Each structure stands twice: as C-alpha cells, then as structure tokens.
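Section 4.2 – Deliverable D4.2 (structural model, holo form)

The reporting period included a commitment to supply a predicted holo structure for the target in complex with NAP. Inputs used:
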Amino acid sequence: MTRAACVIGWPVAHSRSPLIHAYWLKRYGIAGDYRREAVPPEEFAAFLGALAARGYVGANVTVPHKEAALALSEPDDRARAVGAANTLWFDGVLRSTNTDVEGFLANLDAGAPDWDRDLGQAVVLGAGGAARAVIYGLIGRGAGRIVVVNRTPSRAETLRQRFGARVRPARWDERNAVLADAVLLVNATTLGMQGEPALSIDVGRLPSRAVVADLVYVPVETPLVAAAKARDLRAADGLGMLLHQAVRGFALWFGTTPEVTPDLRALLEADLGAAARNPPR
Ligand code: NAP
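Output (structure tokens):
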C-alpha cells in the first residue's frame, strides 16, 4: 500500500513541505504520497483522531495547530519543552516531536561548522514558538547565556521562567547594545519577511567571529543575511533550517533518512523566488 503523510494547516497553501517530500520520494524511488490538508481549528481534533483512518502514517502540523497537536499526541521531551509539535507519527500511539530544534541546529552545523565552540552569549530576537525551539536547541549545545530580545517584554520573561536563568530577557530598544558580546545572533521574529516590516539592527556591532542565523526564508536572502555576509560573518538562512527540519518526518514515515542536497535547495529557491516575484494579494 502507498504510504501517505500530509501537512495540516489553516491556511496551508503556502507550505513548501509538499515540494520537499515529493522531491525525496522521487529521489529515493519510494511509492509514497505527501499532501496538503487545509483544516480549520475547530475541526483539527477530529481530523487528527481520524488520521490513520484517512490512510496517513503521520503528518506535519503548521500554524495554527502546533500547540493543539502537542495536546492531542504523546510528545517527546523536546516537543514538550518547546510547547509545540510539528511532526506526528504512529508508534502504537500517535507520537509527536518538534523538528524545528534539529532543523535550526543542523543548518548551523552544515553552514557554519564549529559555530557552537565556546558558545558564550547568544542573542535571540523574538519570543514566539520558533524562538522557543531555538532556545531549547541552544541550551542543548551548551550556550552560556541567551539574551532574548522581544518587543513584548512579558513574553521574553515567560521564556526565562520556562528555560531557566541562562535566558536573560532584554528590551527591544536594547537589541543593538547586546550584540557586542554575542557570538551568535538569531532572528526568530517575522521581521524581514516579505510583507512584514524590516528588521532594523546593526550587525556592525557583532564581534568578527560571530555567526548570524535568520529563520525567515521569504526572501531566501534576507537583508539580515545579506548584511552579515557583507561584513564577512558566517550566516545561516531560514531555507536551510526549513530543509533540515523536514528530514526526521520523512525518515519516520517512509523509512529512509533523506539528504539535504544542493539540488533540493535550488528547487526551493526557484519556488520561493517565483513567490517573491508574484506575492499573494
Ligand atoms: P510567532 O510565534 O508569531 O512570533 C513572532 C515573533 O515576532 C514575536 O516574538 C513577535 O513579538 C515578533 N514580532 C512580530 N512583529 C514584530 C515587530 N513589528 N517588531 C518587533 N517584533 C515583532 O511566530 P513564530 O512561529 O515564532 O515564527 C517566527 C518566524 O520564524 C517566522 O518568520 C517564521 O516563518 C519563522 N520560522 C521559520 C522556520 C524555518 O524552518 N525556517 C521554522 C519556524 C519558524 P511580540 O511577542 O512582541 O508579538
């Protein structure tokens, strides 16, 4: 029987996951299928309850269902710590994890080897779901201090309570001042994304060995990534994270650990480039 997985979201048309998984299915000669499922919040629990009956061996979950997916499955430690699940599979019961954590780390490992050596101070912009995955990953790699800079201060404070004293909340207007001691700067806000306001930050304040990571992937080369490269800093973009976070789901559903190749990246770049030229109205 053809194994099938899907991405569940509301809306879901923008998701690039079908493109990624279709590429791997073809490349590894697997007779599988990966579909989009547009499911409104009020129907999500029922949809998940009938996931196997619908013929699915698992699913990705995107906005706005990541917290509900956590509550409706058996999460692993990282999904529980992050407070959101994005990958589901059956193993007797419906299990879940959060692959944004490994996507973030693997992308840096691939693009900026040894980025985590002497990981003193990291600065994370943002305090939403993506920032939680980043912070969890950074703690696992031994970050000494993680300065969380967020527009809404109470959300950064909540992360200190969640992840402990290594997290230091800072005000949004302090974002340039905290860069001088940072070996890693991560943008986990929506700023810089197509259709969103620009991110105003001075990467000139970072030490020369610092690494910059942007989670935003439309456009692929954000102004932040471009500014980092212009300063000869190593930079990891959001597309790389998106590709790396997809690996685990594919392995769980289809039994082969796929590779993130230049070909796959080029395919996504072309698709995202086309989207940037013809933005949705
Ligand atoms: P979220 O939960 O909605 O959080 C958004 C964050 O952006 C919040 O910290 C918010 O601050 C901040 N923000 C929004 N507008 C702002 C503004 N005008 N000025 C300052 N801060 C602003 O979103 P999320 O799920 O964490 O996602 C964040 C980004 O990561 C998105 O761009 C998403 O596409 C990207 N992402 C990428 C990947 C990948 O694989 N590359 C994976 C996951 C997420 P407040 O708290 O003050 O509202």
